[in-house]
Predict the 3D structure of the following.
Amino acid sequence: MEYLKNWWNSIDRINIILILSLGFTGLILSFSMDENLSINRHSIFFLFSIFLLISLSDLDSKNIRRISLFLFIILLIIILLILFLDYEVKGAKRWFQIFNFTLQPSEIIKPIFVILTAWCISKSIEDKKFYLPLLFVFFFLLLSLILMQPDLGMTVLLSATFFCQLFVAGLSIFLVIVAFLFILGISIFSYFTFDHVQSRINSFLGGLDGTDTYQIDLSIQAFKNGGLLGKGPGQGILKEKIPDANTDFIFAVAGEELGFIFCLIIIFIILSIIIRSLLKVLQLEDPYKIIAISGLICSFGLQCLINIFSSLGLIPTKGMTLPFVSYGGSSMISIAILFGFLLSLTNKKNEEL
Amino acid sequence: MFYSDNKKQYSVLNRRTFLLYLLKVSFFGIVGWRLYDIQIKDSQKYKTLSKNNQIDVEIIYPIRGKIYDANNKVLASNIKVFDVYIIPENTKNIDKSLNELNKIIRIDFIDRRKIIELSQKVKKFEKIKVLENINWSELEKIEANKLNIEGIFISQDYMRTYQFNNTVSHLIGYTNKPNREEVALPYIANMPNLEIGKDGIEKSFNPNLIGKPGQREIEVNSYGRVIREISRKDSQKGNDIQITIDLRIQQYALNLLKEHKAGSAILMDINNGNILCMASTPSYNPNKIIQKPNKEYWDSILENELSPLTYRCIQGLYAPGSTFKMVVAIAGIVHGIIDTNTKHFCSGKIGLGDRLYHCWKNNGHGSMNVTDAIKESCDVFFYEISKKIGIDKIAKVAEDFGLGKIYDLPLTNQKKGIIPSRDWKKKKYDESWYPGETLISAIGQGFVLTNPLQLAVMTSIIASNGKNVQPNIIKQNNDIEFEKLEKYQNAIKIIKNSMFKVVNESRGTAYSSRSESAPFAGKTGTSQVRRITVAERESEDFRKKEVEWKKRDHALFVGYMPVKNPKYAVSVVIEHGGSGASTAAPIAKEIFQFTKNLES
């Protein structure tokens, strides 16, 4: 009890309330979707995530770096193993199975890599020359492994976050442009290399090769059906028509069943988390913390944007979850780690150190 | 690359962070605007008539494209068929309605009971299918009596139909419901009930033939009944496809083949590679596969030991027998081992190591040059020259003449066959090559295996004086010009002269099949399916003996017509047909004469 009290006193209380409320919207949606199996699982994942989040948020910066480095190496090995053991799900080598949970290590490695990036950059700001080249080696290694899976959405997210961190650290404008061109290059490369990426983009551009925009049409239709207040929990039809409705199109399900206002609430919570973190960052002086928090928030915000944009038909579907709201264990654990790190970095206890 | 000055670094950090966050917040602004746009502003139009109603999206299926032959004869198209439904809420007595309907078209007693049972379970306005795929005349009768039959509903559908039943079935294939993997294909996504091509052209050209689906937005009430249509985008018909097959020749050839249990006949236009006829027997009737119930027919196909589903033209592999001798002779001439004057003496057999290699003519042919050896199909001559050429050089020439290859054709499951070489044997069996195997290969036996289409292509390349002819099955609008293999010019000239003599000079193996109306050249082939024992060989007349069908030799013939400036190449293979001269050559003659008649 004493422990929890101390924890509550030192934590960024506003942010944890915001984070928990985002989690609750996900819980509400999972009940609204009225599928017994996914409720059970979603609730279990949710409770586990909260536990993970609280334990991580009490660690100090040093331990976080150590845990990150340790996990990074382990996950990298697992990703390599999956690639070479030919374990395929849905045409990609992304997942690996323990008991009857499938885990996606590339999802979990995301917040961890953000911390390592911030660490290396802050070290190089202190004029330690060795760290930056090392960081780039790790970055390209990780990126090529994920491209081999192949997972384009994750590649885009990882590299965008990485360059945001470099940008915050003061990368020269020239290099910012180079980085932008690099991302553009990767996107064009994957369009011509991977069939599933090509078919998704073609279908977005309007049936270039006989495919149609069925999923996106249905998603937009769901928003229209929902209107201001929604059809009511469990009344939507979208989830019966799109197989990935509870992950990729969860926002459309929210729009259909719970309406415009509920969607605005979700956006409001996400925005509040982002702005709250900004206010915190502006008070900080430690480059490591600034770069780390910006990176974490960037990764979180970008993932939300990609998911919401694709369900609103603004970009092609990417197969990316809405953090803390979508169903899915890996995504939930990943986001718990991300928020755990975030809360630890803004923990008052750690400020005195 | 970063700032060394701490203060400057700090201000950059803050400024950049702020910029980044600003960008992100503005992106969420876009989300808010878009959300308002579709969910509040746009949804006015979609305001349902009642709160409980839903807007639903329904797919409109496209009509499949047609397939034509070279002369615009329809080979595959869609016929309108009609499904008869009954709607329980529209009839006072469903039993009476079914009785009336039964007077026109018999409905099975068990089916009737099922329909009545179903009508008690489903919603009253739900349509229940009573009859499927009824034709025009049946429909007319029903329409005439419609007033007596309460609650009936007729809906129109399309069914794939093949006008010429089994004539081009292997080549065109058939359609059926997609299986689990196929449902995921991008061009049929969201149309799980679409019939798609399962074999042949129908399968390879699915993306072209299928067309694009349309869709309509409908408002349905809480029971699922359609209230109104909000918007509609019609489907687009699939593209038509024209193939190079001339149906008349195909039908004619198939009739000739039907006298035998199994075999194939191919006719190619050597100038552009167009395949005019590619018939294989036995074949199947795709219409019987499409029309349900088809289980009985399907089982009968699968149980047939001649496997009617096999497309023998590209999937049947046979030892080419003496038709392979042209390749060996060309290799000999090109590598300077023989010329027109080189002679070998055939005594009926030669020895190599401790084995004897026999000629088909037990008494021997006497002294032979290359032209005579092809004309009379002397085996010993080819044993002798192959020893000097070597298997690897023969294999190289065989590949230049299109053997051992899979062609770029929209047909699945082409069988590649085998053109043996030292490397090939090493890889396949991890054994070295024996000299005796060269001898056997030189007469197209042993390891050598080819499919009938490869033999037709080989003949086309010879007939066109060495143009690298590639087979083609889809009608092209532009002319094709094939590259010429210059180094074989001289050799081909000698070979063509020999092939002329095979058919048109006495003692040629196909002399009895010569044609006055359509003079042609060619080469017979008889390929053994088992080894002949010494005892049988000594019994003198083993070839004339009536042997069991399965043990009989395959009969082959390849040829081209006209003799001067050839236009067509043919390849005929009759499984266990006896000898090429007696069985295959007459069919080739008939096909050539028929084709010639079509021209005039």
Chain A has one domain: 9-351. The longest strand of chain A covers residues 96-98. Strands of chain A lie at 96-98, 101-103.
